[in-house]
From TrEMBL:
Thioredoxin domain sequence ranges: 59-190
Lineage, opening ranks: Bacteria, Pseudomonadati, Bacteroidota, Flavobacteriia, Flavobacteriales
Protein name per the record: Thioredoxin family protein
Alphabetical list of SUPFAM superfamilies matching this protein: Thioredoxin-like (SSF52833)
Pfam family, one: Thioredoxin_9
Organism per entry: Aequorivita marisscotiae
Highest taxon of the lineage: Bacteria
Gene3D superfamilies: Glutaredoxin
Length: 196
C-alpha cells in the first residue's frame, strides 16, 4: 500500500511540474508574440565605422553597451549641476515631457546627453516622461520619428507641456544646460543656437 501511495505521489508531482513548465513556456511564447507584434525595438544597434550606433528609440540602458558606456559614464559622473538653478528648475519639470534626438556618433550628443540625465536625476524627473530617439548622421530613423520635428542638428532637446512645445535646446546650450532649461520652462525669452 505504501508503494502504491508513493508511486501515485510521484506521478502527481511529475504531472504538476509538467503543467507548470507548460504554463511557463506558454507565457514566454505570449511575451515573444507581443514583442513581435509591438515591433517597437528599444536600443537597436546598427554597424557604424568600426563599431555600432544606436538607431531608433532608446533609453539609458542603451548607454551601458561597451560602445557607449565610456563617454556616457564619464560625462554623467563629471557633471555637476548648479544647485541654485536646480532648486528653481525642479518644480517646473512637473507635467513636462522631454524628447531628445541625439546621435551616439555625435560629439555634441555625447557631451550633452549624459549631462541631461544627471540634471534630470538630480531633479527627480520621471524617466518615463523622457523619450530618447537616436538618429543616423542624416538625422533620420527607420521609423521616421524625426518627421515633422525639424531636426537639423543634434542633440535637439524638446520640452513639451500638455502637447505644446515650450522650447528646445539645439546642439549646445547658450548658457548652461540647466540654466537654458530654466529659461524655457519658466517662460523667459529663449532662443536656441540656430533660432533666427
Amino acid at each position: 500500500m505504501k508503494k502504491i501511495l508513493f508511486i501515485f505521489s510521484v506521478i502527481t508531482l511529475v504531472a504538476c511540474n509538467s503543467s507548470k513548465e507548460k504554463k511557463k513556456t506558454d507565457e514566454n511564447i505570449s511575451k515573444e508574440i507581443i514583442s513581435e507584434n509591438n515591433k517597437e525595438k528599444i536600443n537597436d544597434t546598427v554597424p557604424y565605422e568600426d563599431s555600432v550606433m544606436l538607431l531608433g528609440k532608446a533609453n539609458r540602458n542603451g548607454f551601458k553597451m561597451e560602445a557607449f558606456n565610456n563617454w556616457f559614464n564619464s560625462g554623467y559622473e563629471s557633471y555637476s549641476a548648479d544647485s541654485e538653478v536646480m532648486q528653481q528648475l525642479k518644480p517646473l519639470l512637473k507635467d513636462v515631457t522631454i524628447t531628445v534626438f541625439m546621435g551616439t556618433w555625435c560629439e555634441d550628443s555625447q557631451r550633452e546627453t549624459p549631462h541631461l540625465y544627471k540634471i534630470l536625476d538630480t531633479a527627480g524627473f520621471q524617466e518615463s516622461d523622457l523619450t530618447l530617439i537616436t538618429v543616423s548622421e542624416e538625422k533620420t530613423t527607420p521609423q521616421g520619428f524625426e518627421e515633422g520635428q525639424d531636426i537639423n542638428y543634434v542633440p535637439t532637446i524638446i520640452f513639451n507641456k500638455n502637447g505644446t512645445e515650450l522650447g528646445r535646446i539645439v546642439e549646445y546650450p547658450i548658457t548652461s544646460l540647466e540654466k537654458d532649461m530654466l529659461a524655457i520652462l519658466s517662460g523667459q525669452e529663449y532662443k536656441h543656437a540656430y533660432a533666427e
